[in-house]
Known about the structure:
Layout: H1 3-13, E1 26-29, E2 39-42, H2 47-55, E3 60-63, H3 80-83, E4 90-93, H4 96-99, H5 102-112, E5 115-121, E6 127-134, E7 141-142, H6 143-154, E8 159-161, E9 167-168, E10 171-173, H7 187-193, E11 198-201, H8 206-214, E12 218-221, H9 224-228, H10 231-241, E13 249-251
Parallel strand pairs: 2-3, 2-13, 3-4, 10-11, 11-12
Antiparallel strand pairs: 1-4, 5-6, 6-10, 7-9, 8-12
Amino acid sequence: xxxxxxxxxxxxxxxxxxxxxxxxxxxxxxxxxKEITRVAVALDPSISAVKxxxxxxxxxxxxxxxxxxxxxxxxxxxxxxxxxxxxGVALMNFHTCLxxxxxxAATLPSLIGLNAKQTLILTxxxxxxxxxxxxxxxxxxTLSALAKKCESVFGRKPRVWGKASSSLKKIVTTTxxxxxxxxEVSVLQAAIDKKVDCIICGEIKYHDAIEMLxxxxxxxxxxxxxxxxxxxxxxxxxxxxxxxAKKDIIMIDQNNYWR
Length: 259
């Protein structure tokens, strides 16, 4: 299979139209007419990931995060977009189109053991980056208990905002960063409108977190990478569905950014 053929199949699963306008999707570097040898999958397109992909016989690195967003000119890029071709490794990514997909949005609640009730819809009518969920018992769970559940699942102690004894019935899960409150179509605003009790996210800005607490909404902050590393498995499974054999896909471990 050629790189461009895999890209076409993956875009059927994660349509370009569902990505944010500012985002970068699909192949960003490399010869799309090359036959795929092996595929490496990672969260971030770092130089070390490219080197690891090359070392393990891969000529394609598929990631969640893009190598750049918007115009290339003027962005630091950590030189990745220019180094990758030197190693003979093409770059391909699926970012916000993966975040809003059924598979992507359902990953976090599934891992934590929450019941995903519905997809978060923003005031503008667009899909939000997450799910509105309820506790598995159908009743309620304390903030302390939910935070401990997250810690047991991910092996990292999350940053928790709110009273430990807070009773949670309506919970929003969303990977990565959540938007600012002054954005009327942000995930945060949607959470306010839906009267949720808690947001589980990758990261949130300090002043936004304080504002949410003032509105009675608790927050469990997992860490940007922790919340999105599970999406690498979604990418791997999707690549297999597209026709690439499991033996020809390698996972690059990036689970060591912080402790």
